[in-house]
Amino acid sequence: MYPYISITPEDEQEMLKAIGLASVDELFEDIPEEVRLNRDLDLEESKSELEVRAYLRELANKNCSLDQMTCFLGSGAYDHYIPSVVNHIISRSEFYTSYTPYQPEISQGTLQYIFEYQTLICNLTGMEVSNASLYDGGTAIAEAALMAAAVARKKDVIISKSVRPEARRILKTYAHIQDLNIIEVDIAEGVTDLEKLKSLVNDDTAAVIIQSPNFFGLIEDLEEAAKIAHKGRRTSFIASVDPISLGILKRPGELGADIVVGEGQGMGIPLSFGGPYLGFMAANKDYMRKLPGRIVGQTEDMEGKRSFVLTLTAREQHIRREKATSNICSNQGLNTLAATVYLVTLGKEGLREVALQSTKKAYYAMKKLTESGKYKPLFNKPFFKEFALTSDIEPEVINKKLRDENIIGGYDLGQDYPQYKNAILYAVTEKRTKAEIDRLSSILEGI
Amino acid sequence: MAYDKLIFELSKEGKKAYRLPPLDVDDIDVEELIPEEYLNKEELDLPEVSEVDVIRHYTNLSNKNYGVDTGFYPLGSCTMKYNPKINEDMSRLEGFVNLHPLQGEDCIQGSLQLMYELEKALCEIAGMDRMTLQPAAGAHGELTGLMIIKAYHEKRGDSKRNKIIVPDSAHGTNPATAAMAGYKPIEVKSTDKGIVDVESLKEVIGDGEDIAGLMLTNPNTLGLFEKDIVEIARLIHDAGGLLYYDGANANAILGRARPGDMGFDVVHFNIHKTFSTPHGGGGPGAGPVGVKEHLVEFLPTPMVEKDGDRYYLDYDYPNTIGKVKDFYGHFSILVRAYSYILTMGRDGLKKVAETAVLNANYLLSQLKDDYYLPIDTLYKHEFVLGGLKGDNLEATTLDVAKRLLDYGFHPPTVYFPLIIREALMIEPTETESKQTLDEFAKAMKEIAEEARTNVKLLKEAPHNTIVRRPDEVKAARNPVLKYEG
Amino acid sequence: MSVLKDLYYTKDHEWLRVEGDEAYIGITDFAQEQLGDIVYVELPEVDDEFDKDEAFSAVESVKAASDIYMPVDGVILEVNEELVDAPELLNTDPYENWIVKIEIRDKSQLDELLTSAEYEDYLAEEV
To answer: What ipTM describes this predicted complex?
Structure first.
């Protein structure tokens, strides 16, 4: 017997009899002989929990996790603190073993937290509508671009080179299948060259995409970029933002963004070697019936009780089929719950404090690391929690040395930007301490 | 009175659920660091609650949910099997959960080894040569798969192929994905036996010059094995197209048959269906995509490779379709899937398919006296009923579904596939006991009796749930999508 | 199921009421009944140009969505703004509540449309 199979040999015999068959093999007689697998799969035999646990623990121990290392690496995934309540709530199996809430009567728990999530995202970004989330920050940018192109019925999408390189790669993959033209705007001193942007926007522009804080951690002038974008006819201005930064930075909705997307990993979701994370998307009301993904709405039941349902479903693949806004038919469910619990746990004061501490510690680190002059700031612009330093030493050498000291060093910018060879991008969250920063500084000085 | 608060309604000025250590670096005013024009001067529009409030609120919400751990969940094509607890524990091992995706290669050897071994296992199960673990979900896998098919035709300079054939019984995602990938989906009819009509397929293919490929679920959405699959594959390949396997229903054939052996060129698996990872109220899942040798060059990067004892990320695929997702996919979901594959092994996975098929056919045998069975044959993991048997019944499939809620069961998938009227699509999965199946059958029979004698009970159902038939028309006509206070 | 005389019809269940070189377009009683409770009507913009058979609008119910196609080539002169706040008007009276008013580009295309009698026959045959 297997622990997850509840049919006994006796049951099996009774059930076969009820079906009118003599053996289990007869259940598969409709599979043509030539495509039957007449051998065992080349996998190991089944195992006990103890054996599986021992093996996977061995694999996990081959990694050097952040429990043993101090992390100064960010670049799209951040080591923010996750309050204990988050894991306790998402571990409730009424949440994690449930399906998409298609039966509202027995899914009010899921539907309500998504409604709360939509509210929190709208309030945080200053937008009017939010969907129930998308796969991650990268695909959220791509989905936003496709939506903007569909709304404007145009093909040109302009994106700044200061947007995270991996997100731009995903956009290119998506753009290819829809025949969109991706036009990249250059950067000047680490931020989008707005003069260049001005020269590129015209009536063929479906969307302009800017990330702020951008890949280098620098704060972009979203307000000015939005004005430029809106010179185009029916051009959508898409802002990709770090939700934690909205603890102190102006809301993109007030700066002229039409669509706001971003990576929500920082909101209570562990690093988990890259996923699953959380893509969020919020927009002006004009886009409400074009948004990809699920949306929850408030309504009343037969007795007039407040209740929640999946709504505006005519946008979605199971009704629209080939005319759907997107083919997406899931959201990040449990991670949406994690972000919801995170945001309400931090609340009005907490999110601001996380943002402030991250910024102040990042500025302290920048000052400390550049004191001796051995490492210089790559840019001289306001930033949020990440900054780039350059030196004569190769990033590989620096990061190897830090690794030996149980520190995860920053991101080697030369990988994506040949012009920034020997530049490293450091991330500092509220979790880092003065002692850790000072230690990083002294090791760097010793290289 | 059931709990009915929103978190915002618990908010009170001054409450806190969170505390940070005091700032231990120079406390410089933020205005001196960041120019004021960028700073938000207003208070954040977030609630103020205590930790006790948070825990009580979301615990109360969880009590309004129904999960696999609560009871039977016979949703057709969703494979709501039990989610083993060891998988959850394994995904939360420190070495997996607290790992940054961009750490140096020597720091991530355990994760890379896991991905490498999982890819090998999934390839063996699917009968494919290589697999990308990057796609985030089934729909994302479909999109990735069609991108690969597109890249294959493009590399051959075969630019006329702009159509993807999809059966009329297909899940709505198939045509939606085809359209998103820039193809025109064209429908092929099913026979009255519920499988692809080969003659109709020949007509749809025509001279074949514009056919990029065919998307097929096998067993299909009716729960039937496409017995003409070899012929179908030959027709598509002869026309120069490729075959895409939608793995939504792979649970039925584990260890018994493999898409690769049936002639499919591209395959995706729904990890959250076949490989037992939780549905999480709608996600996250994972949708790895496998390909045969001739398509390996187009896979998204990076792939995990092995050199001696060292595992590494390989970006050297000049013809790759590019990246489809951030980093390497839904890693912690993949850990759960590998834990499941190790637990079940080659013998257990085969037993999964056998029991899933046994359970489906047994449950069908218990229901067909009271419910209309449009196609009476051997099914695989699921079957589709056509509503209540009998003439002039007022009760619809929706009423049956809502009444089931009163009996404490999650209803089956309803009104899908579209080719069956009043469809009730039932997939019990292998994890359910005979007792559970019998209890469900008994409830279904009682409901059928009620439909004949006291239809009001069905029409006004559910009677015992915390809310009853929320008004979807109102929700869509006057959308209220956030709390306005 | 009502079918009004003196209107033109299409097999996609649109009607067309011609007034000189202009025409009103809506959906038929049959169409609204098939869709069920209509919750949203997507409207084009004035001055948008569409070819015959091009989708210019979409009508959504909770369980279905349907594109509305141009019966003839035309330019949008007016859209029925009332439908924005009250899409259910299409359920209450589909013939009274038009969706758009257009300028017909080529009146000869009217000959290809169905008369009320032909549309009634079509409904009888197809449904």
So the answer is: 0.97
